[in-house]
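The protein record now logged underneath.
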Amino acid sequence: MSLIGAVEEGLRREIADFSIGDTVRVSVKVVEGDKERIQPFDGVVIARKGSQTRETFMVRKISFGVGVEKIFPVHSPIVDKIEVLKRGRIRRAKLYYLRGKKGKAAKVREKERVYTAKAARQAAVTAVETPPAESGE
C-alpha cells in the first residue's frame, strides 16, 4: 500500500460541509467504564486548521454563563457525526474575538438561505397547488 493510499484510508467520507461561523452539533463518543454513549456538543465553529488527517476544528459554546471551547479532530473515530444547525455569515477566518463578547454581541449573524433554481421552482409549484384557507364566517 502506498503512502497516499494509507492517508486516504484514514480520512472520513461522510463529513458535513461546515465552515467557520456555523453552529454545529458534534456527536462525541464517550466511554464510561464498559459503556459507550453519544454526547452532543452544540456550539459555533470559531476556527478550523490543518489538512488531510490532521485537520481540526474548534467549537465554542456558553455553558451556565461560562465559555467552553473544545478542539475536535475532523477524522477522529471519537467524533460520531457533525450536524450543521445554522449557517453563519462572517468575514473572518478565525472568530477568536467572540471570547471577549457577551450576550447578543457574541452572536453570529445567520446566512440567508439562497435557493437554487430547482428549489425556487419547487417552492413556486407548491405555492400554486396549495389552495388558500377558507374562513368559517
About this structure: The beta strands are 23-32, 35-49, 56-63, 66-73, 79-86. The longest helix spans residues 117-129. The radius of gyration is 20 Å. Helices lie at 3-10, 117-129.
